Amino acid sequence: MQRARSAEDKARRAEDLLRAAEAVALELGGVRHITLAAVTKQAGLHQTGLRRYHASREQLLLELAERGWGQWRDAVRGETAERTGLTPVQTAAVVSRTLTSLPVFCDLLTHAVLHLEGDVDIERARRYKASATAARDDIAAALDRASVLTLEQIISLLAVAGFVAAGLWQVSNPTPTLARLYEEEPRWGQAGADIGPRLDAVLTTFATGLAAAATG
């Protein structure tokens, strides 16, 4: 792969690297398996080339998480663009469906909070926080226009959605050691890797509860 020269080439190369990282995560079963070596191999780039874009694995993963926030925002905007009067159940379904369409992002929500934000310099952490917060505000605004829920209720729903999706992804995609343990002791395992139905059930219950509390 030739060295990127123009600003457009560099932007394309940076996106190629993020797609390569995402592909590695999907192929190997999670963000925990992403290494710089695996990403550069997937992208067809020498590891020294990757260093021109990301100084560390943590910076690469945080960039991937930042990209995920933008993808979630765009997905919600797409689903709500022509809709109004969404019920609490319908609103919860939009949040659940768009979030679970981004499995690597669901995985990254755990890693970002646990260590990625703290393992980069303060300016990179600031940029991530600013971008994630802006995306969340845009998601809330899109849902506020389309839903009968209030903006405050929507913000609460989004907070719960992020935490629950992150947790469900982790328990539904165990490490090899835990997967073997669950084969030996099925009662300890989590049923299935599809977090969609469980996330939808939790968010539906929460959203309807918010609406009922406001009118009760």
From TrEMBL:
SUPFAM superfamilies: Homeodomain-like. Pfam families: TetR_C_34. Residues 91-209 form the Tetracyclin repressor-like C-terminal domain. InterPro entries: Homeodomain-like_sf, TetR_C_34. It comes from the Bacteria. This is TetR family transcriptional regulator. It comes from Streptacidiphilus alkalitolerans.
